[in-house]
Design a protein that fits this description.
This is MHC class I antigen. The protein is an alpha+beta fold. The chain folds into 2 domains: 197 residues, Murine Class I Major Histocompatibility Complex, H2-DB, Chain A, domain 1 (2-Layer Sandwich); 114 residues, Immunoglobulins (Immunoglobulin-like), CATH 2.60.40.10. Helices cover 28% and strands 34% of the residues. The strands form 4 sheets. It has an 8-stranded antiparallel beta sheet. Strands 10, 11, 14, 15, 16 and 19 form a 6-stranded mixed beta sheet that branches. Strands 13-12-17-18 form a 4-stranded antiparallel beta sheet, with no helix packed on it. The protein is globular, with a radius of gyration of 22 Å. The N terminus is likely disordered.
Length: 341
């Protein structure tokens, strides 16, 4: 059985002044212990909706959607997702034949959504991937599809002949924005809250790198930088991915890889900026004994990793060998259930 890994999407993050609605659908061919089809819905990068082909039911993931949409909504979404499951199975089979593949685990994925800015401007996108590599993406301005490889050109021509782009543009500029506004109104107290990060400097032992860990903040826009003797320091820095916490807040880490002598001979500090607050931590704040790390930090980190792996929040399933993919009703669903590859 070929291995499959989960990658985080490094795009379309929701920052202050912007609200976003995003869906990620993943179809997987048989042969691994994972649902054949999963669908994840996110508002402002927080998951509110989930479906997979094992449970065969669309389910709420936040209180605000659970309290505001009833059984009719979830029954309708479940019916839609059952249809998409079959569509994705058919698409994988078509693409296997097109790529002359007879065996192995294969994936067909779409990420689509819209953003609404404070000034009223909007953005929208549709991006498809096969086996973890770009396949086609929507050029909304020209109502055409951009093909990433020769096999995708067939799909490009087919969808352009069917005017799929026009349908998707209408969804992104109208239906998607309308539902985003509705969801933000549902979850206003949660989605428009502002919570400052808890910041810690962590070090396993005196010779190890130092990690600046910010957690518990909302919204997701945060900047973590290092300074050396009062000046910005960009060398030897590894910035980690933005991760969700179980409570809907976020966390991020930045690691400074310098030796003990350099720490001793210089004054380093970690600067975390979130909303209008700046938090600075220096060598005096380093926690060097992991047994002393606050349990909330450990639990939050573990919960975030589990959430990403198990649920697939802002993630794609791709092959280990192809892990370079980065994405360039009364239902609010806007995917192409009838469009074949």
């Amino acid at each position: 059985m070929r291995s499959v890994v989960l990658l985080l999407l490094g795009a379309q993050l929701a920052y202050a002044g912007t609200h976003s609605l995003k869906y990620v659908y993943t179809g997987v061919s048989r042969g691994i212990d994972f649902p054949e089809f999963t669908a994840v819905g996110l508002v402002d990068e927080g998951q509110f909706y989930y479906f997979d082909s094992n449970i065969k039911q669309a389910v709420p993931k936040t209180e605000w959607i659970r309290q505001n949409e009833g059984a009719d909504y979830w029954d309708r979404e479940t019916q839609n997702m059952v249809g998409y499951h079959q569509n994705f199975k058919d698409s994988i089979q078509i693409l296997k034949e097109r790529f002359n593949q007879s065996a192995g685990v294969h994936t067909w994925q779409v990420m689509y959504g819209c953003e609404l800015n404070d000034d009223g401007t909007t953005q929208g996108y549709y991006q498809y991937a096969y086996d973890g590599a770009d396949f086609v993406s929507l050029d909304k301005s020209t109502l055409t599809w951009t093909a990433a490889n020769p096999e995708a050109v067939i799909t490009k021509h087919k969808w352009e002949a069917l005017a799929v782009a026009e349908q998707n543009k209408g969804y992104l500029e109208n239906t998607c924005i309308e539902w985003l506004k509705k969801y933000v109104a549902y979850g206003k107290d949660t989605l428009e809250r502002k919570v400052s990060p808890q910041v810690s400097l962590l070090q396993k032992d005196p010779s190890s790198p130092v990690t600046c860990h910010a957690t518990g903040f909302y919204p997701s826009g945060v900047t973590i930088t290092w300074q050396k003797n009062g000046q910005d320091h960009d060398e030897d820095v590894d910035l980690g991915e933005l991760l969700p916490n179980e409570d809907g807040s976020f966390q991020r880490m930045s690691t400074l890889n310098v030796g003990p002598d350099e720490w001793k001979n210089n004054r380093f500090s970690c600067v975390v900026e979130h909303q209008d607050k700046t938090i600075r931590k220096t060598e005096d704040d380093i926690i060097t004994n992991f047994d002393s790390v606050p349990i909330a930090i450990i639990v939050g980190a573990v919960a975030a990793v589990v959430l990403v792996i198990v649920i697939g929040v802002v993630g794609y399933l791709v092959y280990q060998r192809k892990k370079g993919f980065k994405p360039v009703s009364a239902s609010d669903d806007g995917s192409n259930s009838s469009a074949r590859t």
